[in-house]
Design goal:
Strand content: 25-35%
Shape: globular
Radius of gyration: 20 Å
Structural class: alpha/beta
Helix content: 25-40%
Amino acid sequence: MKNIAILGCGNLGRRHLQSAVKTQQALNIYVYDINQDVFTLAKELLDGSPTFQGTSVTYVTELINLPKKLDVVVIASSSSGRRKLIEDLLAVSEVKYLILEKVLFQSFADYDYVQNLIDAKKITTYVNCPRRYYPIYNGLKKTLQNKQFSFYLHGGNWGLACNFIHYLDLLSFLGGQTPIEIDISSLDDEIIDSKRAGYKEITGMIKGSIGNCNRFVIKSDKQNEGGNILFIDSDDEKIVIKETENLVYRISEDSITCDKFKVLYQSELTEKYIESLLLNGTCGLTPYEESAILHKAFIGPLTDYFEQRGIKERLCPIT
């Protein structure tokens, strides 16, 4: 049987596990966390979830207790310790496929370091930006093929620092990755505390362009709370997406339509990643090299922003 590991058993790691046990083949799944108390929550979650016949789940608090060969590893830890966790994992196990959560790393230098590490170990690595799996965005990719478009996103205090990469990745998926420009000059001056202890958040506006998206504006309004609204404007159609309501409006010269769409949750997605990797040797997530370029375009200027506000050691304290 294939060996799968999930490193990090917090809220997101447990959702990865909830999905992984539904993969349509029997697996040996290993869940690692230094805090064994979280395993109780994981077991309670699995009590209400279907598990493929023959699949087993083993909980470990030391990496040395993982198998020497792992087929797929999902690293669902926070950003501050992710590089070291990757290094420690690869010191004890041979890994074929690696899926990393984002934001990837706090230090700009870690992006190239990990690239060199996975290249040397010949590990096929992806970054979990799951909107590439949403049918709504796969359809939009076909609609926008070879078209220039603009993109505007507005929401109320929605976690701009930790979630910006999701939308930069989406724009890369819809319109291509190069060229890319990021302008953070319209961010608010004040840094705020993240909901996750030890991390920081930002509000304000990030502007730029990427690929065929000739202008994007992504805004988090500090004074308001509310769901995000996405606007896409191309030559022949305007598209409005309300993700929290699962609604998409399409406005053209002679018609206006409104349709419901399905948002895929992590508890539905990880099984798709694993099945695709085991059967085809690839999956629809963002390859590490591509995601690292997107991350660095953002992390570089944001590191300067934090340093100017007293965050030293050239770190970007977001996850």
